[in-house]
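Lecture 7 notes: from sequence to structure.

We start with a single chain of 126 residues. Read the sequence below before looking at the structure.
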Amino acid sequence: MVHHSVVSGVVGAFTGATALALFVFMAFTLILVPVSLFGLAVGLLSVAYAYVVYGYLVGRALPIDRPDRAAAAGVAIFVVAADLLGRIPLLGVVVQGLLVVTGLGAVLITYYGFREFEPALADFSE
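Now the structure, written as tokens:
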């Protein structure tokens, strides 16, 4: 989220759009409704994990000695700030959507935080 926000945003936007369409198509068949609901639940948990990561990043900037309490306070501050941001008529919804898309993409490209994302370097010297 911090270093490659454009890549995270693009990955999150593409994943969100295609996954939502895929889950709707799966829900049309009665047999795949549970799979569709499970996929939506995993997607929502991934967005929640992105909110926790945003809160952790906010908590690192707080002057609190214990990292666990700083992260908890950061999550609380971020959730309240996101809620207040959503109350702004048009701009708030757009910024919230960008935060969700960027967070989802960052969660996915880092494999839920297990690996650091390193983009491929292109060699254009010919």
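The CA atoms of residues 54 and 78 lie 7 Å apart. Keep this in mind for problem set 3.
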